[in-house]
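Recap quiz, item 2
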Amino acid sequence: MKSKSFSKRLSRRVIIIVALIFIVGLIVVGITSNNLIAKESERSTQAILHSTISSFELPLNEVEISTRTVAALIETTEDADMAAAIIHGMVQEDTLICGGSVMIPSAQGPSVAYSYTDSIGETHDFRQTGGWADDSWATRAMNAAYKYKRPFWAPPYMAEGDRTMMVTAYCYPIFQVKGDDSVLAGIVTSELPIDWMERRCEELKPYPSSLTTVTCSDKIIGITDTVLIAQIKKAMSQNKDLQELQQDLKKGKDSLRRFWTGSKLSFVVFGPLHNGWMVSITCPYKEVLAVTSKMHINLILIGIVGLLMLYFISRQTIRNMTKPITQLSDAALHIAQGDFKTTLPEIKSQDEMKHLRDSFIYMQNSITDYINELKTTTAANERMESELNVARNIQMGMLCRDYPDNLHALLIPAKEVGGDLYDFVVRNRTLYFAVGDVSGKGVPASLMMAITRAALRFVANLDQPINSLVSRINNSVTDSNSNNMFVTLFVGRINLDNGHLDYCNAGHNPIIIIPPDGEAYYLKAKANLAIGIFEDFPYEAESIDLAHGTRIIAYTDGINEAERADKTLFGNDRLLAWAATPKARDLSLSEKDIVEDLYGTVKEFVGDNPQNDDITILSLTT
Amino acid sequence: MNITINNVDNKTLVTLDGRLDTSNADQFQQDIAPLMEGDKPNIDIDCTGMTYTSSQGLRLFLSLQKSVMSRGGKMVMRNMNPQVKEVFDITGFSNIITIL
């Protein structure tokens, strides 16, 4: 798997963090700007609403003033014809008013004088007394006047005659006081066309889908979508009727409501005309916020482009800055492969990279020096090893290998060379043998061993008591021993005809005697001092007669002090136990077999623990 | 091998503890170097804690003994465990070193 580059990872992280910050910023900016724009739009729409309301109020006021004036005139006359004439005049003269009437209650139903201007500007008059249907405008106007007892605006209705337009009418009731009661004396009405109001509503679109409406009790001017009308009404009313709402608005309560149409959120601002009608402007937020949406998209695009640029630039920058690391790691690889001369990249900056490079150079130099030193040391070691091997061959060559049938010996140094020794000479049925151990190990011990071995060889040919031989060896070794080393030595001389053994033990481990019929035992000996310590030490000899077929095992402390991993020594008891086995006394086995059996037993005891002392075993049979 | 050396009333008390083998013989030689100096030393070595000594160890005791003798002083070793004592006996060192 290819590992991702450091620059890629780092720049990716930077990008993720910057992107997160950008997204959060964008959300905050989005929400804030949307709120600002929405607020601003609501405020400006409210301003538009107010000016619209003012423009609607003006003609209404004018009509009201005209009507009141006409009503005052009519009130002064008792003549119906005169009243009709006044109405005719009003309709003809007032450009705003397209129709008017005076109604006087009578027993047969209202007596109505009605005049209107037709589509070509000609004024028509119409008079009728009684015979009005219950749902006729005249009956309804009379009923409303009785009910309200004050002037009012009628809801829009289709104009009479050949006119195909919606009109509304200002109804001005005239009351006369008769006793305690005020009695309806008549009603003066003036018709005002509302097409201009409809047109104004259609034109007034702060936003493409904005709707401007005028609500007059049950009718709505401006739109025909019944579902939307219901939504707007509901939003405006909030469970209040229009009159209550007008009261609220007069008290300065909020004239703005929000409502959902499907998934579309809109707001509606509304205000009352003085006649109780309600003007409203509805705007969907989607269109209000269209401008910010565009801005947001631009911001996102800029952000994405910016992030991509940041990614590539930062990646390149980081790559440039970390280039030395890559080069140094390549160099390290070369060094690891053994190319110590690899040139390291030049670093001009005085920063951590420079420090790293300096450390690298230091390491390179140290390793080079170390390797060179190691090479020298290894060469020296190799030379010493080969010399030691030569020394080992020389030392092994000193040991007698010319075994007679009844004797065998084994010597295994712990290192290349050792301090153990053995020797034997057979002359005229006399077997002279010795086993020794120089204190310490290795080269110093091996040199002492060579000296001792030479002395042994020299005295072996002398026909003297055995303790004299040992004394001679002692003097010879002590003479050339300035280092307080010493040699433990067992020297024996056995008459092979009668089994008489003369021996002198100079500080060596007691040898083992295995009689043909009896228990094996350690041969007790006087504690003579090891040789090489004091010149002229009085060594004492001893002797014993051994039966024919007695086996003698001589050894060095490499056997009884052979050590297991748990520091347990093989010990004298185990050694004697081995000597007590039938195998050890089995004369049918060769001395070589016996030596190897003892060695095998010790090896088995020691296990994997390395041999820590020279081992010598010598076995002979009388 | 731990060695402690205390000088009390013209007497040098030495306490040995542990095994004295090939691995620490060189260190031991350095440790006892102070004992190789001074006139007429009177050295008392307590061997209670010494569990084993190799032939190299023996050589160092021998050197010490010879050094003490040449300076006209005396040295005793005491409380040897039987295994260690046996080594001193076998090698004949018991003949030249005072073992109590």
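Chain B has one domain: 2-99.
Helices of chain B lie at 22-31, 55-70, 82-90.
End of item.
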